[in-house]
Amino acid sequence: MPLPRPARALAVTLFAALLAALVPAGAAHAESRTVQGGRLDWGIKSSFQSYVTGPIAQGSYGLTGGAATVGGGQFRFHSAQGSYDPESGAFEAAFSGGVRFTGHRKADGTDELDLTISRPRVRIQGGQGTLYADMASKAKGSGKVTVTARVPLATLNLGGIDMRGGGSPVALAGVPATLTAQGAAAFAGYYPAGTPLDPVSLTVDVTSPQRKPTSAPPAVEPTAKPAATASATAGAALGSLRTAAVDWGVRRTFREYVTGAVSEGKWTLAGGAQDGGALFRFPSGKGTYDPEKGTLDAAFSGGVRFTGAHLDLTLDRITVKVSGGTGTLGADVTSAGKTEKAVPLVTFAAPDLAPKNGLAAVAEAPATLTEGGARAFGGMYRAGTAMDPVSLAVAVDTQAQLPPLPDLGSETTPSAAPSKRAAPSAATAATSDSSTGVYAAIGAVVLLGAVLAVLTAVRRRRTGTPTH
């Protein structure tokens, strides 16, 4: 016998409440979050690196797009952009930078081996992970060059990793990677599909939909307002500058030595210095600048300390002087407990330091080690050795902004080297969500009992069945 209409209405209401209890709170309104900033560390394949730089290929690799090296043979790609859904665990992040391998130099000066891997992208959905990359490779034998965007280069083994419920940052470390069939073809046939590649580690920052990304160009430092008849640029002609920054990575191979297997060290930044992956930024430059003569005499904030086995070197109080088209970068150098003030470390070309749109800049000028720099490095490098290039930016206009740094995201470990443990940062939040689910299930059982009790009571009232 059908239930009367009021009873049916009550049953529908209670059943709807039951469904609401079974669905996790907020699931209906869950939104993807924005990935804004972070880094991916990946050696691609260490044996391939050894082959390229070894006695057979006699080649090398070069970094592009702000990519860096870290630890023992890992490449660091930067400035993650993408999305993350903590409800489903779906994740996608694209990174900037690339690495180009060349080797087997031929008589005509070209390289038989020429492979570029850039702009890696990690996509995770439904428990499956894939690493994509833009690839440019020269085929063995024919020399035909193939350029392909977003090649599914490697599958990622996410066994035991639950991406749901994560906060910020989201981190994965030591995820196993395997070469795909498409990746093998784009790799110019050096390895077959199924070949293990180096494990992948990444750390990215995520922001909620309501909040704007926290990453922004460096803050503009305030200055006193000029007189009504004078512009900021005109003020610079009188010997002032608003702010400035200098970018320098010291030397790539030195950083690799510090964090590599021999030294097993790290670097530590202080005083406002910033890590751009392939370089360090020393900001808040103050001093004098003459745009007509192209001269600069400025001091910058921050310093960097390198420590490791038999190594303790600090470069602090960075200065830059430019005159006659040549720049000199100096620093206070502390080594073995002794400090030498204002040591000229490298020289670089700065032929044009006139402001354009309120910004005078020198971009990646080749730098050469001085005699003082050679002493600072304890004789590790001779005077005249090529060091990392120097970039300099001097803001003389209130509207000018310094070039942004590569965005490495939040630091999750005190060391520059990545962690080797494969564990997602989502674990704690996922446990919390599981507890919430348990309580929701208990409430659902209680509510289900109430629904059944009401339906039974209504039916008994209509059929005259005794209640006890």
Detailed description of the structure:
With 468 residues, this protein is of the alpha+beta class. Helix content is 19%, strand content 41%. The chain has seven helices and 23 strands. The strands form two sheets. Strands 12, 13, 14, 15, 16, 17, 18, 19, 20, 21, 22 and 23 form a twelve-stranded antiparallel sheet that branches. Helix 1 (5-22) runs antiparallel to helix 7. The longest helix has 37 residues, at 427-463.
Largest sheet: 12 strands, antiparallel
Shape label: globular
* Spatial extent as radius of gyration: 30 Å
- Binned strand content: 35-45%
Q: How many helical elements?
A: 7
- What's the end-to-end separation, in Å? 22 Å
The structural class is alpha+beta
Order of helices and strands: HEHEEEEEEEEEHEHEHEEEEEEEEEEHEH
Which residue ranges are poorly predicted, with pLDDT under 50 across at least 5 consecutive positions?
12-29, 214-238, 413-448, 461-468
The number of strands is: 23
Question: How confident overall, as mean pLDDT?
Answer: 81
* Helix content range: 10-25%
Notable characteristics:
single chain; 468 residues; alpha+beta; 12-stranded antiparallel beta sheet; 8-stranded antiparallel beta barrel; 7 helices; 23 strands; 19% helix; 41% strand; disordered C terminus
